[in-house]
Amino acid sequence: MDELAGLRALVVEDEGLVALLIEGMLEELGCEVAVSVATLAEAITAATHETLDFALLDVNLDGQSVFPVAEILRTREIPILFSTGYGRVGVPDAFKEYPVLSKPFEAEELEQKLRSALKQ
């Protein structure tokens, strides 16, 4: 059985079409999208209360930084992947050990970075 099958994901993405694409990619990998949210407030609630195996976080949520959510997830020891149009430079040094997907990305890159995040 593949290690990705059935893993519960938190998707934080403020662009509706991009969120749908990401959700589709994750489902093709066998993951379950437990929660998909578009705002910082919703993301904080989900990161605090949901049962999750990993999270994919858009760095910029309508002008707000997603890093308060990342702090919650790091405290809970939940693997994180960041997605951003800014590349690695859009992620502060405090989170440099986490994989970064540069938008736009393909399903193969998502799978590779996800497997890497789960091994950390």
From TrEMBL:
Pfam families reported for this sequence: Response_reg (PF00072)
Q: Does the keyword Phosphoprotein apply?
A: yes
Which part of the chain is the Response regulatory domain? 8-118
UniProt keyword Phosphoprotein, yes or no: yes
Lineage at the top is: Bacteria, Pseudomonadati, Pseudomonadota, Alphaproteobacteria, Hyphomicrobiales
4-aspartylphosphate PTM positions read 58
Membrane-spanning residues: none
Instruction: State the UniProt keywords alphabetically.
Output: Phosphoprotein
Report the superkingdom from the record.
Bacteria
Locate the coiled-coil region(s) and give their ranges: none
Give the protein name, as stated in the record: Response regulator
